[in-house]
């Protein structure tokens, strides 16, 4: 089971210079709850945007075309889409794609589920979710959880769950 998991603003923005353009603790909590004790797959820039830190209690895969890329201990480096798909085929657990844009574009066609945090605000940034890589007619929204807006989480947001129907 391959699941794409991302947060985006109202314009589809997902990143700014290697980091998230917003601070939304509810989304970080959601991310942790979904990915804990599972495998996460990310591109090199996404990994380096997390300061190259391995997230605890998760298996981390960095997908990069750089054959000489050296990741810290505890990180699996893969160089092709097929390597990721072979890994997914060998596990009975969900594997989460967490970005960036190139990883999503390469593997969205293989996903069975999508978990999107929609932030009803516009931010500045330089990386957008590859909307052209999804035919939304192939997906059904199965659940929506409204995020709580408070002092720490000032932007209206919701967590959306989709399953592939075609």
Automatic annotation (TrEMBL):
Catalysed reactions listed for this entry: (6S)-5,6,7,8-tetrahydrofolate + NADP(+) = 7,8-dihydrofolate + NADPH + H(+)
This protein's UniProt keywords: NADP, One-carbon metabolism, Oxidoreductase
Molecular function as annotated in GO: dihydrofolate reductase activity; NADP binding
Domain DHFR: start-end pairs: 1-164
UniProt enzyme class: oxidoreductase
EC number: 1.5.1.3
A Gene Ontology biological process term: tetrahydrofolate biosynthetic process
UniProt GO cellular component terms: cytosol
Top-rank taxon: Bacteria
Matches recorded under CDD domains: DHFR
InterPro entries given in the database record: DHFR, DHFR-like_dom_sf, DHFR_CS, DHFR_dom
Family classification: Belongs to the dihydrofolate reductase family.
Protein name in UniProt: Dihydrofolate reductase
Taxonomic source organism: Enterococcus italicus (strain DSM 15952 / CCUG 50447 / LMG 22039 / TP 1.5)
Gene name of the encoded protein: folA
